[in-house]
Amino acid sequence: MKKYLIVANWKCNPQTLKEAEKIFNFIKNKVKKTKNEIVICPPFIYLLKFKNSKNLKLGAQNCHFSKNGGAFTGEISPLMLKNLGVKYVILGHSERRALGESDEIIFKKIISAQKVGLNVILCIGETLKEKKANKTFKILKKQLNFIIKNDIKNIILAYEPVWAIGTNNPCKPDDLKNVLIFLKGINKNFKILYGGSIDSKNFREYLKLKEINGLLIGSASINIEEFRKIIYG
Ligand code: PGA
To answer: Which atom belonging to ligand 1 lies closest to the Cα atom of 94?
Structure first.
């Protein structure tokens, strides 16, 4: 049976440690029976309170490009995350790209994160305007340029079309299939997750796709009943 990677991106939620602990502890008790690997990516400040366990791993939503930190006000280094027991880091999320993060900065972050031994989940995806202009593949190729040119290995991709995030309008499985084939054509060893409006009703259609290795889930991941259904695959 295929083992999936199910990644919870809590984004800037919840607003209290108490709520965060409630969600985390609920999931921790549920994951014991799943065959899948579940990764929880809470806001940085809650990471300190959580521990990895069987099938349940910690991830961060971002990190700085300076491996060992230094004079970077307000930033968190990959080494700090690693030393805290964090196993994964999401990089290049479209909500960060929208704040001005370039492919070049993201690439520097990938290099540093991999150097300290974090598993990188690189988010890529086109906007609605780009999709309408039939530029999806062009954009994906551009976002992967550094990865291809430098032959970066062991990267986990998360295809997250920007128009599908938080919209209740996920990429249709048939359309997703074309993107997955395109990405596997670039490198057949890419592990690929899909993200964008996944919930407990639609997730199975996505996990059925041969090329998919898992899901990156936003809003449904902080709803304990929704997420409970999804983690069993
Ligand atoms: P969503 O977010 O599941 O709420 O659409 C996904 C993401 O941004 O990673």
So the answer is: 8
Cα 197 to averaged position of ligand 1 atoms, centre (Å): 6
Range 132-141, long-range pairs (CB < 8 A, 24+ positions): 136/161, 136/179, 137/179, 137/182, 140/179, 140/182, 140/183, 141/186
Distance separating the N- and C-terminal Cα atoms of the chain: 11
Q: What are phi and psi of 41, to 5 degrees?
A: -115, 90
Q: Is 218 in the pocket of ligand 1 (CB under 6 A)?
A: yes
How far, in Å, from the CA of 162 to the mean position of ligand 1? Answer: 9
Could you confirm whether 93 is annotated as catalytic? yes
Instruction: Note the pLDDT tens digit of each residue in 180-215.
Output: 999 999 999 999 999 999 999 999 999 999 999 999
Give pLDDT tens digits for 7-57.
999 999 999 999 999 999 999 999 988 899 999 999 999 999 999 999 999
How deeply is 225 buried, as exposed, middle or buried, from its count of CB atoms within 10 A (0-12, 13-18, 19+)?
A: exposed
Atom of ligand 1 nearest to the CA of 165: 5
